[in-house]
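[job 4471] stage=fold_predict status=RUNNING
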Amino acid sequence: NYIILLPVFLPFFSQCKTAPAQKDVIKIMSYNVLKYGDGCQGPAIQLHGYLKTIINYTDPDILGLIKVEAIPLTPGAKGKAPIGFADSVLVNALNAARPGKYAYCPFTNAAKNYNQNLLFYNKHKLGFSSYVTLVSDLTDINMYKLFYLEPNLSKTHDTAFLYIVLVHTDSGDEPDDRNRQMAELMSALR
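[job 4471] inference complete, writing structure tokens
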């Protein structure tokens, strides 16, 4: 498992000449959680506790959990994580660490794989706008559109948008699947 933490600096300039430019930092974290939710690495409540500790320390504004055990969207669908697992991560790990801070984006599993990605965000700094599934080959690769909750957003209707693509290609000794997935992703982004 690995954690990547990236700061993003967003300059926001006011329309008013007398107001100084406003700057904010958005911390982005990607974490490969390798089957989180299938019960293999331990009970979910114990793993939620570990994630809570990590979130207390890192305090990201955007968190991509990569390779979460698939969460069935309907009973009988593929995946070993319990229905509502994303909510349990939100309640027992993220918002337990930082009360009321996080929300999550819709997730998909059109590829019907056992892995999926989840995107969480700081709902006090960011809003969710939309998502699109760019590739559904082995796993779904979604692009999420978030927007910055600029303090004068209701007056100016002007903000910055962040596009987040969570990617974990097929891994292993044979690069054919990985290369195909990356080619499909680059084609979809073009």
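[job 4471] summary: Helices lie at 44-58, 85-97, 153-156, 176-189.
[job 4471] exit 0
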